[in-house]
Design a protein that fits this description.
Belongs to the cation transport ATPase (P-type) (TC 3.A.3) family. Type IV subfamily. Component of a P4-ATPase flippase complex which consists of a catalytic alpha subunit ATP11A and an accessory beta subunit TMEM30A. One of its GO terms (molecular function) is magnesium ion binding. The protein is an alpha+beta fold. Helices cover 42% and strands 18% of the residues. It contains 37 helices and 38 strands. Strands 16, 17, 18, 21, 22, 23, 24, 25, 26, 27 and 28 form an eleven-stranded mixed beta sheet that branches. A nine-stranded mixed beta sheet has the order 14-35-34-33-15-29-32-31-30, sandwiched between helices. Strands 3-2-4-13-5-11 form a six-stranded antiparallel beta sheet. The chain starts with a helix and ends in a 51-residue tail after the last helix.
Length: 1175
């Protein structure tokens, strides 16, 4: 037995500290390790195929059908269809089967087409050629055939075919430049580093001779985290172990730039790559409208069951008399009479269910999906939301939440990059208590020596000169900035004093601002080459520092450090970071003066950083190297060990000074927040910045106003008092006048009410969210929520990303269940964007992580105003009318059928023809409501932007409340009663002929069952269509074409359906019925009269409510009509008022200023002034 293999297995699965089950071993080039090193255990990994498609050719039909019939409405209609096939029902299975087949087919075609596009994209990606090393030669094969362990060569401007560990490049320093725009949207060049022991392998033969294994973590989706190590074997002895991190990992989808070629080994392939793991869809969000729709559906299902039970019961009560039986035309056979009573009753119940099942609108779901999908294009087509500066427009990642944009009650926004431009400008620096303000750089020319500096305080003495220059060197060296110029990266550089200015690029705008700022103060960062950083000092001399190590920035430490060796051999650690993370680690320096300046700058809204340093003795540096190496080669808990190592290293610092950087407020950010508050939306700012900086920004963007009383719930205050006392003191303050507060206080604009603003920090929030000793934290949370509800604005500072999501979740699941919206631009905002009901990403300078994970993306914060106040308002108005209208028209459709059973002995006789039953929802009434739900504008766009308070009229799902739902249902029942009994009374004076037909006594025309049903159906189609026309405010030629075209189509279809003998029909009961009906003059009069009576109550209700209890929207509509129409006009000029103008009504809604009326009735000149149309 091979003992080394057994030892390796025991070591792998029984290692004490490290859990090897969670790691994988990769053999570079598929070469076995040397004998005695470790056991060779080949592992199976997936190939490099990417599969983003959902279906295959073989499983499309069953899988798609299974998914579609998981929807309650589709499954319900399938059951109804099967019942019609199994038992004898009054309607043909076609009446349920055809609409269901139409819905299923349309949805399947849409989903199949989308999946075909995904297949096409997958094939293009999987078949692209890739170069890899085999037996020392370069071989070409398809990407899908790559395997883990293959060594791949990638050339400049090519994308990486899988996740690779970077082995070497054509550069001597073993670096390469990469862009990850397709992954996170960051277009800046990122520098990656080859493994130290393999960076010298530049040829295929050298790489093929490499003998190494890689141990790394199993695949996980975090793009910015990777833990591994490489064992490089040689003939000299033990293998060399090197740590591997994210700087050594080249991700699939990233692009190689400014590097001729690189070699890398595949470690994650196919669906295990980080890019593929990020394909996983986000949790499904459902809008409030969809939830209401499902509740209404259940109500109508209960109504349907009630109707079926009532009719079944009354049928058997009716037939309980001996002389009453089934009608002569529906006699049952002897075997049917002998069946069990309960079985017969159940069969009749199912038959009535089938007869009335059309009250459940199956086509509503398809119409809603089409409305959402097509309606989402109005956002992407909106030119007002296109940003010329960035060339970006809005994006819609999901169309399921369009109407939710019109229901937002809370907005949670990030500060940096969302409210501000994330465009940093260096303002000043403070060194040893002396303040330096650089001149603005002029035409790219750096002003030399001290002429580029304004001294606010007195000049430092000679003793401080050394600290001053050390501070400037620290800013020049402590960063991860790259230098980019027009020359080749490795080519000869122009002389720094030749007038050519360096262009700096970095993933952090703060770092670029600091490097550019110190450049204006006389120190210029030149480049990093061969592990040496070069800077140009004030005297025009180039200084070189060897970069020994970088302690990277992270959001927990809130600082970064570099360790460098100067030309004289001295070793420095330079550290920069937030004041809260630097001051506790400082043992020397003018802390009080610098702290005072930092606080002053923070109050002015400037972003501040502190800079410190310490010298390291050689033996200290050796200890630091050992500590870092031990942490970096660990596979388990590497981050924790590194954090402990950083904490140990970054202490006993000497404070040098602080910097101040200005992040300007975005254009119209203040106007946007003010408009959102007027709309009744509460705005919260969640940021990681310090309290003073964030508060200054809140004042600048008018979140806090001059009269706002600020309440602080911060760590500092909790240290002075207990959390319990602080919370209840604040609660007492804000609730003192709560009795007089109204919900208008949401806007925070009332002058006669107390206006409170709350400031809370992350540590205080942790205490509030932390469970108490009794195991409950609900009490503190409720008190906190009560305080927040009575504040016009809330600022949460020093927030970690997870805390942002906790805040959103806390409000989201409070007892009011308000609709929440989160907006941000960085990766730290993703958690709250995913948590909120609606997530919006700003396409900013911190990458596209937020935009990729959001429901919608916009270029600037100012575009949020139109997205909510206009698009959201319209979406909600349209879809709420669509939902209510669908239920209304189906009540109108089925209730006459219910009434008809009382006049036919509950025999389950249908009132309408099969064709009418089938086409009512598919053809006759579908297009008008779809067009309405896409194009309706009850008020003009400019009015909605000018008057944000109109947003409140639709807040809290106002148009889908039970009161409105009940009104639409009652209206449908009333109209159905008018249709049925109006037609019935028209047939009252009739005589029955010997063959059973009905003849009216006044016209002597023959009328039958189908004529009666057709009359009812005709009145119904015209009424429900004209009802929609009455509700339409925004008329275009498309509306006219669809509404009148639908009515014309019904008439033409009825004439053809009953006017021609169709050979494919075994019997034709509608033959000549419609023509016969229209040939009767009283029928025409009856149709017009019944339509008028049906529409009259709704018209009266609209007129009375508009006059007596008008909403803000209705008052605005009245004002628009008054302002857009003349007071007096000649009849010949009435055409100019837009009654039949072909242009959209929105073009007519440009009200004149009230100070300058268009016409003055009774004025001296009695002039008639017609409106002047805008061009």
């Amino acid at each position: 037995m091979d003992c080394s293999r057994a030892r390796a297995l025991v070591h792998r699965f029984c290692a004490g500290e490290e859990n090897w089950v969670d790691s994988r071993t990769i053999y570079v080039g598929h070469k076995e390790p040397p004998p005695g090193a470790e056991a060779y255990i080949p592992q199976r990994y997936p190939d490099n195929r990417i599969v983003s498609s959902k279906y295959t050719f073989w499983n499309f039909i069953p899988k798609n059908l299974f998914e579609q019939f998981r929807r309650i409405a589709n499954f319900y209609f399938l059951i109804i269809f099967l019942v019609q096939l199994i038992i004898d029902t009054p309607t043909s299975p076609v009446t349920s089967g055809l609409p269901l087949f139409f819905v299923i087919t349309v949805t399947a075609i849409k989903q199949g087409y989308e999946d075909w596009l995904r297949h096409k994209a997958d094939n293009a990606m999987n078949q692209c050629p890739v170069h890899f090393i085999q037996h020392g030669k370069l071989v070409r094969k398809q990407s899908r055939k790559l395997r883990v362990g293959d060594i791949v060569m990638v050339k400049e401007d090519e994308t990486f075919p899988c996740d690779l560990i970077f082995l070497s490049s054509n550069r001597a320093d073993g670096t390469c430049h990469v862009t990850t725009a397709s992954l996170d949207g960051e277009s800046s060049h990122k520098t990656h580093y080859a493994v130290q022991d393999t960076k010298g392998f530049h040829t295929e033969e050298d790489i093929d001779a490499l003998h190494a294994t890689i141990e790394c973590e199993q695949p996980q989706p975090d793009l910015y985290k990777f833990v591994g190590r490489i064992n490089v074997y040689s003939d000299l002895g033990d293998p060399v172990v090197r740590p591997l991190g994210s700087e050594n990992l080249l991700l699939r989808g990233a692009t190689l730039k400014n590097t001729e070629r690189i070699f890398g080994v595949a470690i994650y392939t196919g669906m295990e790559t980080k890019m593929a793991l990020n394909y996983q869809s986000k949790s499904q969000k459902r809008s409030a409208v969809e939830k209401s729709m499902n509740v209404f559906l259940i109500v109508y299902l209960c109504i349907l069951i009630s109707k079926a039970l009532i009719n079944t019961t009354l049928k058997y009560v009716w037939q309980s008399e001996p002389f009453r039986d089934e009608p002569w035309y529906n006699q049952k056979t002897e075997s049917e009479r002998q069946r069990n009573l309960f079985l017969r009753a159940f069969t009749d119940f199912l038959a009535f269910m089938v007869l009335f099942n059309y009250i459940i609108p199956v086509s509503m779901y398809v119409t809603v999906e089409m409305q959402k999908f097509l309606g989402s294009y109005f956002i992407t087509w909106d030119e007002d939301m296109f940003d010329e500066e960035t060339g970006e427009g809005p994006l819609v990642n999901t169309s399921d939440l369009n109407e939710e944009l019109g229901q937002v009650e809370y907005i949670f926004t990030d500060k940096t990059g969302t409210l501000t431009e994330n465009n940093m400008a260096f303002k000043e620096c403070c060194i040893e208590g002396h303040v330096y303000v650089p001149h603005v750089i002029c035409n790219g020319q750096v002003l030399p020596d001290s002429s580029g500096i304004d001294m606010i305080d007195s000049s430092p003495g000679i003793s401080s000169r050394e600290r001053e220059e050390l501070f400037f060197r620290a800013l020049c060296l402590c960063h991860t900035v790259q230098v980019k110029d027009e020359d080749h990266m490795d080519g000869p550089r122009k002389s720094p004093d030749s007038g050519k200015s360096c262009v700096y690029i970095s993933s952090s705008p703060d770092e670029v601002a600091l490097v550019e700022g110190v450049q204006r103060l006389g120190f210029t960062y030149l480049r990093l080459k061969d592990s040496y950083m070069e800077i140009l000092n004030r005297d025009g001399h180039i200084e070189r520092f060897e970069l020994l190590d970088v302690l990277s920035f992270d959001s927990v430490r809130r600082r970064m450090s570099v360790i460098l060796r100067s030309a004289t051999g001295e070793i420095y650690l330079f550290c920069k970071g937030a004041d809260s993370s630097i001051f506790p680690r400082v043992i020397e320096g003018k802390v009080d003066q610098i702290r005072s300046r930092v606080e002053r700058n923070a109050v002015e809204g400037l972003r501040t950083l502190c800079v410190a340093y310490k010298r390291l003795a050689p033996e200290e540096y050796e200890a630091v190297c050992g500590l870092l190496q031990a942490a970096r080669v660990a596979l388990q808990d590497r981050e924790k060990k590194l954090a402990e190592a950083y904490e140990h290293i970054e202490k006993d610092l000497i404070l040098l000074g602080a910097t101040a950087v200005e992040d300007r407020l975005q254009e119209k950010a203040a106007d946007t927040i003010e408009a959102l508050q007027k709309a009744g939306i509460k705005v919260w700012v969640l940021t990681g910045d310090k309290m003073e900086t964030a508060a200054a920004t809140c004042y600048a963007c008018r979140l806090f106003r001059r009269g706002t009383q600020l309440l602080e719930l911060t760590t500092k205050r909790i240290e002075e008092q207990s959390l319990h006392d602080v919370l209840f003191e604040l609660s007492k303050t804000v609730l003192r006048c709560s009795g007089s507060l109204t919900r208008d206080h949401f806007s925070g604009l009332s002058t006669d009410m107390h206006d409170y603003g709350l400031i809370i920090d992350g540590a205080a929030l942790s205490l509030i969210m932390k469970p108490r000793e009794d195991g409950s934290s609900a009490n503190y949370r409720e008190v906190f929520l009560d305080i927040c509800r009575n504040c016009s604005a809330v600022l949460c500072c020093r927030m970690a990303p997870l805390q942002k999501a906790q805040i959103v979740k806390l409000i989201k699941f409070s007892k009011e269940h308000p609709i929440t919206l989160a907006i941000g631009d960085g990766a730290n905002d993703v958690s709250m964007i995913l948590e909120a009901h609606v997530g919006i990403g700003v396409i900013g300078k911190e990458g596209r992580q937020a935009a990729r994970n959001s429901d919608y993306a916009i270029p600037k914060f100012k575009h949020l105003k139109k997205m909510l106040l206009v698009h959201g308002h319209f979406y909600y108005i349209r879809i709420s009318e669509l939902v209510q209208y669908f239920f209304y028209k189906n009540v109108c459709f089925i209730f006459p059928q219910f009434l008809y059973q009382f006049f036919c002995g509950f025999s389950q006789q249908t009132l309408y023809d099969t064709a009418y039953l089938t086409l009512y929802n598919i053809s006759f009434t579908s297009l008008p409501i779809l067009l309405y739900s896409l194009m309706e504008q009850h008020v003009g766009i400019d009015v909605l932007k000018r008057d944000p308070s109109l947003y409140r009229d639709v807040a809290k799902n106002a148009l889908l409340r039970w009161r409105v739902f009940t009104y639409w249902t009652i209206l449908g029942v009333f109209d159905a009663l008018v249709f049925f009994f109006g037609a019935y009374f028209m047939f009252e004076n009739t005589t029955v002929t010997s063959n059973g037909q009905i003849m009216t006594t006044n016209t002597h025309m023959m009328f039958g069952n189908w004529t009666f049903g057709t009359l009812v159906f005709t009145v119904m189609v015209f009424t429900v269509t004209l009802k929609l026309a009455l509700d339409t405010h925004y008329w275009t030629w498309i509306n006219h074409f669809v509404i009148w075209g639908s009515l014309l189509f019904y008439v033409v279809f009825s004439l053809l359906w009953g006017g021609i003998i169709w050979p494919f029909l075994s019997y034709q009961r509608m033959y000549y019925v419609f023509l016969h009906l229209l040939s009767c003059g009283p029928a025409w009069l009856g149709i017009v009269l019944l339509i008028t009576v049906s529409l009259l109550p709704d018209v009266l209700k609209k007129v009375l409510c508009r006059q007596l209890w008008p909403t803000a929207t209705e008052r605005t509509q009245n004002t628009q009509r008054e302002d857009s129409s003349p007071k007096l006009a000649h009849p010949a000029s009435l055409w100019s008022l837009g009654a039949w103008d072909p242009r959209p009504m929105a073009a007519l809604h440009h009200p004149a200023p009230r100070e300058q009326p268009r016409a003055l009735w009774g004025s001296e000149e009695h002039a008639v002034l017609l409106p002047t149309w805008p061009p």
